Amino acid sequence: MRLALLFVFFLCVPVFAAQQVEIIELRHRVVEDVLPVLTPLLEPGGAMSGMAGHLVVRTSPANLEELRKVLAVIDRPPRQLRIRVSQSRDAVVRQRDVDVSGRVRIGEGLDIVSQRAPRKGESGVEIHGGGSSVGVYGRDTRRSTQSGADQFVRVMDGSEALIRIGRSLAVPFRQVAVRPGGVRVSEGFVYVDVGQGFYALPRLAGERVNIDIRPFFDSLAGHGLDVETQELSTTITGRLGEWIELGGSSQQGREEAGRLTGAGSRETSDTRSVWLLVDEER
């Protein structure tokens, strides 16, 4: 019915010399995609509209032929892409400790004593003589943790994609409210989402791709319920089939502590990186 009304509209308009009305069926694209491209190419006095996968054009035969040539270029199947995002994290903690233990005689019947047994993983040296014994013990430990996520999603050129993999954690809460009638205690759970994934919007230009990308990576901090979040948002361009570094972060820290019979230090490093690969699926 709506298509018939379009016919009536075009036939009721004064007929310009050498113009004709043509209905063109779109094969792969929708009307909203092609109208902004074709409308500026109409000759003066021409008109174009569309609905339900068809274009209705009133123009001259020569202009119509030009429009068909342009339409043949843009009315093609959208290219299908495979977007892959790789996120990695490398955390290192190094702990160094030195302690002195022993018994030192400084006079008749007077000793200074600081004794303890060597701990597991320590190495050291002990010195004995003159009624005294001194031990120096040291420990150097290094703990490395590596984690990451690798996700991919298939999407058509110019379409949005979102992938998220994770879980919801039930976190208990306790709320105390003081009211005129007394104290009211409420208990329950709230759910916190922890996951990894990304949002992407790719646009092809030949063999290059422009992409709006927002990867995110959540992880639990230690043994508690604190959530560490890594998130990045950017627009980049690159070639199909090539890995592109989106970004990353690097943090270092150092702590030192001294005590009466020893000293210690703790060094930490946390390095994260995010990479992107876009391929065309043929």
List the uncertain runs.
Answer: 1-10
Determine the N-to-C terminus distance. 39 Å
Average the pLDDT over all residues and give the rounded result: 80
Q: Biggest sheet, in brief?
A: 6 strands, antiparallel
What is the N-to-C succession of helices and strands?
HEHEEHEEEEEEEEEEE
C-alpha Rg (nearest Å): 36 Å
Number of helical stretches of at least 4 residues: 3
Compact summary:
The chain is mainly beta and 282 residues long. Helices cover 12% and strands 66% of the residues.
Provide a descriptive summary of the structure in words.
With 282 residues, this protein is mainly beta. It folds into 3 domains: 2-74, Ribosomal Protein S8, Chain: A, domain 1; 80-93 and 142-281, no CATH class; 96-140, no CATH class. The chain contains 3 helices and 14 strands. The chain has helices at 2-12, 31-38, 61-74, and strands at residues 20-25, 47-51, 54-59, 80-107, 110-114, 123-129, 132-156, 161-179, 182-205, 208-220, 227-231, 234-239, 243-259, 262-281. The strands form 3 sheets. Strands 4, 5, 6, 7, 13 and 14 form a 6-stranded antiparallel sheet that branches. Strands 8, 9, 10, 11 and 12 form a 5-stranded antiparallel sheet that branches. Strands 1-3-2 form a 3-stranded antiparallel sheet. β13 and β14 (262-281) form a beta hairpin. The longest helix has 14 residues, at 61-74. The chain is elongated and about 125 Å long. Residues 1-10 have low confidence and may be disordered. Residues 1-17 form the signal peptide. Residues 21-80 form the NolW-like domain. This is NolW-like domain-containing protein. InterPro entries: NolW-like. Keywords: Signal.
